[in-house]
Amino acid sequence: MEAKILDGKTLAQKIQAELKQQVEELTPKIGRPPGLAVIMVGDNPASAAYVRNKERSCEKVGIASFGKHFPTETSQEELKQVIEELNKDDRVDGILVQLPLPDHLDSVSLLHQIDPDKDADGLHAVNLGRLVRGEAGLRSCTPAGVMRLLEEYQIPLKGKKAVVVGRSILVGKPLALMLLAADATVTIAHSRSQNLGDITRDADILVAAAGRKDLITADMVKPGAIVIDVGINRVTDEAGNSRLVGDVNFDAVKTIAGYITPVPGGIGPMTVALLLANTVWSYSQKQ
After folding, report:
1. Cis peptide leading into residue 100 (ω within 30°)
2. What distance in Å separates the CA atoms of residue 199 and residue 192, rounded to the nearest whole number?
3. CA angle 168, 174, 177 (to 5 degrees)
4. Which helix (H) or strand (E) holds 20?
5. Distances in whole angstroms, Cα of residue 143 to Cα of each of 187, 190, 191, 225, 229
6. Is the dihedral of CA 98, 84, 119, 287 positive or negative?
7. Which residues contact 84 (CB under 8 A, 6 or more apart)?
8. Which of 63, 91, 107, 285 would bridge with 58, disulfide CB 3.0–4.6 Å?
9. Residues forming beta bridges with residue 205, ordered by sequence position
């Protein structure tokens, strides 16, 4: 038996259709469409592709894009000024700084500059604090996307053992808190964890979010487990063709797991869908 696929791409399209309808209903009441400002610095090709994808998705849903693209040498002070202006701009409901930034810039300081109620990525310390306390607020997009996908497939979390491999502030830590809030028993493992396979084999729900190709192999997975692959790694074959793979050895693990997310087409589209949902949520608070 092969694992069932958790199809993030199809669910993301469904979420976007729901958001489009919501925007159509709210726009006459609020008097303007929702607005998302994406700040990009430099010429990172992967970042540029992500930004284009986000802008196209905004267009489908009816969100106005206020994209701002700056040259690599832009200073910290200039970007702080731009964020300050966007904080005050009534047309903008969400602000996103596309990471990674060039080395001379302090991304944490810039993220803290964003008004927490316009923090479309859910990474401001205030929003992470709201998550810890179980209060309403903007949630980090990728972990929120994982939770929404589990919900869609009616996967029970209460009392289940969940292992999150990865401890980043982007995914691992907020996702562990979200799983905990859903009454799962949560373990966070990482690259320094000893006997990683012993930890992961105990998981009913296994999330790989470490950014390391083939980190999770078939012998590390409990039969029938739910396997969520958040990793995005670009690999190039001998012919020079590149493709995206996750942190999970998909072909081997799909023969063991009960459910599995593909890469691409799993969590990636969900991240963008939840970014749009965050923007619309901020916007809906204005009515």
Report:
1. yes
2. 12
3. 130
4. helix 8-30
5. 15, 17, 19, 19, 11
6. negative
7. 113
8. 63
9. 162, 226
Residues 114-127 pLDDT 10s: 999 999 999 999 99
Contact 95, 87 (CB under 8 A): yes
How far is Cα 270 from Cα 15, in angstroms, rounded to an integer? 9
Q: Do 127 and 151 meet the contact criterion of CB atoms below 8 Å apart? A: no
Distance CA 96, CA 120 (A): 6
Asked whether the beta carbons of 246 and 263 are under 8 A apart, the reply is: yes
Catalytic residue ranges: 54, 98, 121
DSSP string, 159-176: T-EEEEE---TTTHHHHH
- Strands of 4-5's sheet, edge to edge? 4-5, 259-260, 226-229, 205-208, 161-165, 185-189
**Rounded distance, CA 194 to CA 206, Å?**
17
Residue 56 — pLDDT band, cuts 50, 70, 90?
very high
Q: Which two tokens stand for residue 36?
A: 């998302």
Characterize 165-197 residue by residue with b for buried, 16 or more Cβ atoms within 10 angstroms of its Cβ, and e for exposed.
bbbbebbbbbbbbbbeebebebbbbeeebeebe
Beta partners for residue 227, in sequence order: 206, 260
* 173-183 confidence digits (pLDDT tens): 999 999 999 99
Q: For residues 165 and 190, is the Cβ–Cβ distance under 8 A?
A: yes
Q: Which residue has the tokens 């284009």?
A: 52
The predicted pLDDT at position 274 comes to 98
